[in-house]
């Protein structure tokens, strides 16, 4: 198993990518701390893992709060004995241009999406140093790699996550701590599924992805499991794009939509 005997934290572990990754980490032999602002969601995921023979606990966390993240790491070490993998996955989105977006919403997005990564590293790295190294994985987005109109706070926050990942990796590579980001395309998480009830929005997203479909949370979990494992031992400072070919194709090609009928 890829993660045998490793201790992992997954923030935003109560649903979507975090839920899928919590289950994948467990199947690969890891103990999992399922951390989420919504404790009942985290408890449900941890309960299913334990029912299936794994080892998981649920912890309530506000990833934008220093004391809350510090407590999360302390609880993990107290209950599990160590920390090998920190998956900073929790995130949020508030739509709007710079003119439309409320200042409070800007601050919320930056707190949940960027401050959380800073805090996750701040409190996880000292513990990892004590045990000889570890892996930190941050959920970014393809929105951090290009301008994303109508969601400026989200795009800016995910760009910050990517560069924070690179800076952290540079600082701690010699310590045996690897830091990488995953940049998903459009993934079928609960918020995205609600958005895709609009046929026009769904059609536009399907056209945008060269594979003609949206991604599944399990497909991001697969990449996270590899980055968490020793099989990626020489990989650090990377922003790995997992987007079904969205960034590979030309926007002009999307407009022409030359794909076969079954992919339109």
CATH class: Alpha Beta
Radius of gyration, CA atoms, in whole angstroms: 18 Å
Distance between the termini: 39 Å
**Can you give the helix content as a percent range?**
40-55%
Sheet with the most strands? 7 strands, parallel
* Count of individual helical segments: 9
Q: What proportion of the residues form beta strands (DSSP E)?
A: 5-15%
Structural domain tally? 1
β-strand number: 7
The helix-and-strand class reads alpha/beta
The average pLDDT value, as a whole number, equals 94
By CATH, the topology is: Rossmann fold
* Helix-strand topology string: EHEHEHEHEHEHHHEH
CATH superfamily: NAD(P)-binding Rossmann-like Domain
The outline comes out as globular
Give me the CATH architecture, please.
3-Layer(aba) Sandwich
List unreliable stretches of 5+ residues.
none
Q: Which descriptors apply to this entry?
A:
alpha/beta; Rossmann fold; seven-stranded parallel sheet; 47% helix
Task: Report what the structure shows.
- This protein has 264 residues and is α/β, with parallel strands linked by helices.
- It has one domain: Rossmann fold.
- It has helices at 16-27, 39-51, 66-80, 103-130, 152-172, 190-195, 199-208, 217-228, 251-256, and strands at 7-11, 31-36, 55-60, 85-88, 134-139, 177-184, 239-242.
- A seven-stranded parallel sheet has the order 3-2-1-4-5-6-7, sandwiched between helices.
- Helix 1 runs parallel beside helix 2, helix 1 crosses helix 8 (217-228) and helix 3 (66-80) runs parallel beside helix 4 (103-130).
- The longest helix is centred in the middle third of the chain and has 28 residues, at 103-130.
